């Protein structure tokens, strides 16, 4: 699902529209520059880069990413870098990860990688953030922190989040509306309470309700 | 004067080390940073060597040439020719994933070798190109060697600093990110195919420069000089031993491997002729064995890649993290 929206997979049929535009044939990197940012269920950190570099990398349109500019206009690159670095440190502060800024990202804990994934979405002007099972493999305490950060980003920076999640408590606290899907098609789209008590959902995920009633 | 004569062999050794140093840095750009498994180093080395040879040598019967251009022009031409050769190769081959790229690049290098061997109008076939001018070639042998060493070291230094700067920049950070995780790099908005092509071309151009340096040293180039067993194989071992991803590391690798390689030649030359011929393969076997030992005991190389080179700890002084890291909920983020 997220692979389709973010462009990692191409749909076998149908079209993907985003903000009024058909993006079906756009590469993932082009979708990123339209404000469509994703995270991964299994963290895809850049293992040999430091945590700080992992964040700095994400900033779009950096002057220093052009091969020639590093040789011919180092001044502009430096100004750009300082700004990106400032933003990365601010993001680390927000995530409370400053103490591991210089750790190799491959060596930090699974939970910290999840935070880092969220942090990467903050290094760009995201509009829609696709979170692929943010709670998977994250302990309760960290999950609470993650939730409050997601809420904050939604409230203060107007990110729209699309969450795919199995953790019902997290969905209850964060999501409205909830879409329940089974075998590739939508069962119901409503608020959490309605979805939870919907007979079709119960049937699909818990087995036949009639049998239980009889 | 006598002293200089005594130093002839070490100087000769050092010239070769600086040429191989250039090759290892070139391969480090491709493999160490961009993760491109180029097994065709010899191919680009050959393109550079022959381009510079053709551009600078005097006219000869039966082949194109007679341009007699200055050596620096030959070197620039060599790099340019490699860019032109690397572009289509990269465009096609970089779509393959790592190990397939290795196979395809071996094929490309072999194709180049066959062209060199058989297209007599271009390369004079197996007789090769002779009379290639040599910088400081008018000086007596010993001084000329020292001067050439100075030139090749200067070129190596320039290459080192330019590449090192590039790799510490956001560009280098992005290349390493692409190497570490292609999917995520693309999801973070990086144009992976284009960036890979850039790294491939940059590395290939530097391989061409090394090839040009080589022909202006030896003044002769024949197809035997671009044996992939020597060029590609040795350069790979240098990079792996030294530490891929670290430019200083690969230079150390070039130094160690070339000294071992040459010293073992001194030893095998003392043997009777019929054994000496076989000993060449024993040397290759030993270097291959060394590679196995390195991979077993120290896969990251002698000087491993450093963490945080782009945006890392060295720059912390400029902006104190505490001063700008806001507390949770602040609007500064």
Automatic annotation (TrEMBL), chain B:
CDD domains: TM_PBP1_LivM_like
Membrane topology value: Multi-pass membrane protein
Keyword Cell membrane (UniProt): yes
Pfam family, one: BPD_transp_2
Localization (cell): Cell membrane
UniProt keyword list: Cell membrane, Membrane, Transmembrane, Transmembrane helix
PANTHER family in alphabetical order: HIGH-AFFINITY BRANCHED-CHAIN AMINO ACID TRANSPORT PROTEIN BRAE (PTHR30482:SF10), HIGH-AFFINITY BRANCHED-CHAIN AMINO ACID TRANSPORT SYSTEM PERMEASE (PTHR30482)
Record-given protein name: Branched-chain amino acid transport system permease protein
Lineage: Bacteria, Pseudomonadati, Pseudomonadota, Alphaproteobacteria, Hyphomicrobiales
């Amino acid at each position: 699902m997220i692979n389709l929206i973010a462009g990692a997979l191409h749909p076998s049929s149908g079209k993907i529209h985003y903000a009024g535009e058909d993006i079906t044939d756009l590469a993932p990197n082009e979708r990123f520059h339209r404000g469509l940012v994703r995270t991964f269920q299994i963290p895809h950190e850049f293992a040999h880069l430091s945590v700080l570099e992992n964040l700095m990398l994400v900033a779009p349109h950096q002057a220093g990413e052009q091969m020639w500019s590093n040789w011919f206009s180092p001044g502009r690159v430096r100004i750009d870098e300082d700004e990106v670095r400032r933003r990365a440190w601010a993001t680390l502060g927000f995530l409370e990860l400053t103490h591991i800024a210089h750790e190799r990202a491959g060596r930090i804990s699974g939970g910290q990688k999840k935070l880092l994934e969220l942090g990467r979405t903050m290094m760009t002007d995201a509009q829609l953030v696709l979170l692929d099972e943010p709670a998977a493999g994250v302990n309760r305490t960290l999950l609470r922190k993650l939730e409050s950060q997601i809420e904050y980003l939604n409230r203060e920076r107007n990110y729209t989040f699309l969450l795919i999640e199995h953790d019902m408590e997290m969905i209850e606290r964060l999501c409205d509306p909830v879409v329940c899907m089974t075998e590739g098609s939508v069962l119901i789209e409503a608020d959490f309470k309605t979805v939870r008590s919907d007979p079709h959902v119960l049937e699909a995920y818990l087995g036949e309700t009639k049998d239980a009633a009889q | 004067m006598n002293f200089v004569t005594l130093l002839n062999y070490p100087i000769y050794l050092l010239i070769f080390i600086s040429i191989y140093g250039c090759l290892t840095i070139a391969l480090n750009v491709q493999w160490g940073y961009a993760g491109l498994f180029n097994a065709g180093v010899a191919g680009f080395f050959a393109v550079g060597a022959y381009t510079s040879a053709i551009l600078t040598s005097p006219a000869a019967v039966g082949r194109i040439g007679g341009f007699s251009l200055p050596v620096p022009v030959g070197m620039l031409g060599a790099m340019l020719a490699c860019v032109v050769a690397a572009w289509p190769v990269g465009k096609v081959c970089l779509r393959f994933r790592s190990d397939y790229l290795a196979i395809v690049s071996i094929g490309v290098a072999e194709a180049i070798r066959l062209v060199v061997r058989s297209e007599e109008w271009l390369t004079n076939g197996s007789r090769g190109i002779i009379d290639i001018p040599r910088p400081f070639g008018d000086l007596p042998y010993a001084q000329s060697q020292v001067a050439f060493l100075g030139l090749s070291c200067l070129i190596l230094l320039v290459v080192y600093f330019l590449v090192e700067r590039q790799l510490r920049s956001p560009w280098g950070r992005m290349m390493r990110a692409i190497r570490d995780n292609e999917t995520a790099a693309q999801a973070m908005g990086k144009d992976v195919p284009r960036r890979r092509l850039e790294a491939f071309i940059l590395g290939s151009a530097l391989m061409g420069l090394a090839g040009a340096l080589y022909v202006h040293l030896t003044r002769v180039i024949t197809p035997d000089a671009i044996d992939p067993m020597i060029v590609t194989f040795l350069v790979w071992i240098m990079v792996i031993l030294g530490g891929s991803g670290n430019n200083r590391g690969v230079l150390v690798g070039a130094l160690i491997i070339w000294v071992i390689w040459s010293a073992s030649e001194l030893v095998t030359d003392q043997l009777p002729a019929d054994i000496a011929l076989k000993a060449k393969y024993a040397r290759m076997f030993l270097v291959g064995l060394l590679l196995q030992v390195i991979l077993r005991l120290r896969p990251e190389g002698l000087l491993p890649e450093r963490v945080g080179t782009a945006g890392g700890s060295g720059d912390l002084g400029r902006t104190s993290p505490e001063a700008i890291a806001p507390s949770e909920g602040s609007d500064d983020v």
